[in-house]
Amino acid sequence: MDVAGQWYDAYENIHAGRSTLSGTPCPSCGSKLLQLVFLVDHPASERSTFVFWCDACLRGLPPGPAPRAEGFLPTVRGTEPVPNFCIVKEEPE
User: Reduced to 3 states, what is the DSSP secondary structure of residue 12?
Assistant: First the structure.
């Protein structure tokens, strides 16, 4: 499995509650500094956009629509503490 696939697996495991954010190593560098933010237009919004990255190596998934995961508070768009990180890409077969 390529690195992008490992990132998606990590995201899915955290989102589903099968693993914790602090207990999951970064698929790119191995550190345990992963961050997951759910951006909303207003606090009561049901729609959100996930942003998932590593604070150590500044790599992560492209942001995308997703329901908020249980235990994660929404962050109002425009107030997010998201750095400029590199998007991991699928490797061609």
Answer: helix
